Hints:
There is one protein chain. This protein is of the alpha/beta class. It has a single domain, classed as 3-Layer(aba) Sandwich (Rossmann fold), CATH 3.40.50.150. The protein is 41% helix and 11% strand. The chain has seven helices and four strands. The chain has helices at residues 5-14, 16-19, 27-34, 53-60, 78-84, 123-130, 133-148, and strands spanning 44-47, 68-72, 89-92, 111-114. Strands 3-2-1-4 form a four-stranded parallel sheet, covered by helices on one side. β2 (68-72), α5 (78-84) and β3 (89-92) form a beta-alpha-beta unit. α3 (27-34) packs across α4. It is globular. The chain starts with a helix and ends with a helix.
Amino acid sequence: MTHDVTTFFLAWLQDPRRVGxxxxxxxxxxxxxxxxxxxxxxxxxxxxxxxxVFTHKxxxxxxxxxxxxxxxxxxxxxxVLQLCYPGARVLWMDAARLDSEAIGDSGSYGSVVSGLxxxxxxPRKVLAILSSRQMASLKQRISNTRKMA
Length: 149
């Protein structure tokens, strides 16, 4: 998988705050971000899929494409994701609208992976993402797992 640096850089030139970085995430960050995520946890919700570097790492770890829901706001990245990962569910949407869009039952995801540039987002948007039903469901599941351990 090659990461489309040119597309990423051009998107950054158009809207640096939306993209949040000058270059796309690399393999080392993808390894770090996905290290604790296992296929046995269930489907993954990926926020800010961008060039697909985290997606690629998840597939390397044994996830099937049909177990991945990729959320991407940048219209320049969506067709690339759809082409590279035809079995994944790719949604062109703002992650802050997780609760208002039909992306599946809030309990249907075992993990969330995020490539979102949270530090460049307005606090209200970050709060909307972190307080969505999908996040609340995962927090509850993690809390219950820790109590049982």
